[in-house]
Amino acid sequence: MKKHFIVLTFVVILSSEMNTLAEPLSIYEIQYTTDANGTSEQHGIIVDCLGGIVTHKREGGRPRLVLQDPNYPDGWSAIQVKGWARDAFDDVNIGDWVSVINVLVEDNKGTTFLQYIEENNPGLTITSINNPLPEPLVVTIDGIAAPIEGLNIWTVTEHSAEKYESMLIKVVDVTVIGTGYGKAYDNYILQSNADPNLTCWVSDYMNNNKDSDLIYHPLVEIDQKFCGVTGILEQYTAESDGIYYDYYQFLTTNSEDFMTEQIADFDGDCDADFSDFSILAGHWLEEQCGEPVWCSGADFAQQLSDGIVDVYDLREFALHWLEGK
Questions:
Q1: Within its chain, how far is the Cα of 181 from the centroid?
Q2: Which residues are CB-contacts of 153 (< 8 A; sequence separation ≥ 6)?
Q3: Rounded alpha-carbon distances, angstroms, from residue 16 to 13, 58, 104, 120, 121
Q4: Closest to 261 (Cα-Cα) out of 198, 177, 323
Q5: Do 27-128 and 137-259 come out as alike in CATH topology?
Q6: Whole-angstrom Cα distance, residue 146 to residue 174?
Q7: Is the pTM of this model over 0.90?
Q8: In this predicted structure, which of 131-135, 194-198, 289-293, 321-325 has the lowest mean pLDDT?
Q9: For the domain bounded by 137-259, which CATH number is listed?
Q10: 292 burial class (0-12, 13-18, 19+ CB within 10 angstroms)?
Q11: In the chain, what are the domain boundaries?
Q12: How confident is the model at residue 8 (pLDDT cuts 50, 70, 90)?
C-alpha cells in the first residue's frame, strides 16, 4: 500500500529592521486614511511606490520631490519624497514620472513622506519624461481653512483638507491681509474676496524663485490681490514654547504660481464670464481703442492691442471662457 504525503511549505520573510510590503503601492494607497489626524496607514513601513509625475523639485541638503498621480484628481494623489543625500535626485526633472522602491513611509510633523534613506537601499526609476503636469484642483478657501487661535494653540477644527496633501491646488480671487504667522512666522494670510470670513495660510519656503534672503516671494505684500494662487498643501504640527500648532499651509513653488490678473477678465472679478462677454459685445467693432483702457480691455487679442475689437479678440476670449470660476 502506497502512502501519499502532502508537504506544506510556509515561507516567511522578515525584515531585520521593520515591516515591509511586497506589492508596490500607488500614492493613493499610501496617502488614503480614515485616521482623524491624517496619519497614513502605512506609517513605519518600507514600501515600493508606483509613483507619479514630478510637480516640484527642491534642491539642497535634504532634496525633495513632489509626486502626483493624475489618476486620482480629486484627492489622496500626491506625496513628498525626501532624500538624505544631496545628489539623490540630480537626474530627475519636473515632468518625469518617477517610481521608487525601499522607501520608508513616515508621517513627520503632520505630512506623509517617503523617506529615501540610503541604509534601506532605495531605488528610483524614471519611467517617462516630459509629462504634462496635472491641472491644479481649484479648491475653496474654507476647504483649506486657516487655523483658529485658542489658549496657547493654533489648530484647525478638523482635517478634511488632508486629502489635498502635497497635491497641486489653486485658490482664486484672494487678497493678502496679514504676514508673520505660524511657528516660523513665515506664513501669510490670503482672504477670499467673495467672502471675507474665509482665510487660509500660505508660505513661500518651497518657492524656487524666492530670494533666499527674503521670507516671502517679492509679489507678496499687504493688500496685494491675486486672481489665483497655485501651490501644494502641507500639514504642519509642532509644539514650541508651550504653544501647540496644527495647521495646513499652502506652499507656492515658483513665480508662475501667482496670477495677478485673469486674461479676458474685463470687469475685475477674476473670471471670464457673461459679464465680461457683455463688455466685449458692447465694444464690438469699435475702432480707435487706445490707452489707457483699450475699450474697457476688450481690445486684447494675443496681448497685442490693435485698436479695434474684432474677431481676433472674440477668439481669444473664447479660449479663456469661464476661467477663474
A1: 20
A2: 243, 244, 245
A3: 10, 32, 14, 11, 14
A4: 323
A5: yes
A6: 14
A7: no
A8: 321-325
A9: 2.40.50
A10: exposed
A11: 27-128, 137-259, 274-319
A12: very low
Whether 69 has a pLDDT exceeding 50, the answer reads yes
Angle between helices 311-319 and 274-282 (to 10 degrees): 170
Q: What percent of the chain is predicted at pLDDT more than 90?
A: 76
Residue 15 reports pLDDT greater than 50: no
Mean pLDDT of 230-256: 96
**Averaged confidence pLDDT in the chain:** 90
In CATH terms, 27-128 corresponds, of 3.40.190.10, 3.30.70.120, 2.40.50.140, 2.40.400.10, to 2.40.50.140
Cell 520631490 belongs to residue? 65
Total residue count of the chain as it appears in this document: 325
Helix (H) or strand (E) holding 104: strand 97-108
- 66 pLDDT band, cuts 50/70/90, is very high
How do 243-251 and 153-155 pair as beta strands?
Answer: parallel
Closest listed residue to residue 100, CA positions, set 129, 117, 132, 123? 123
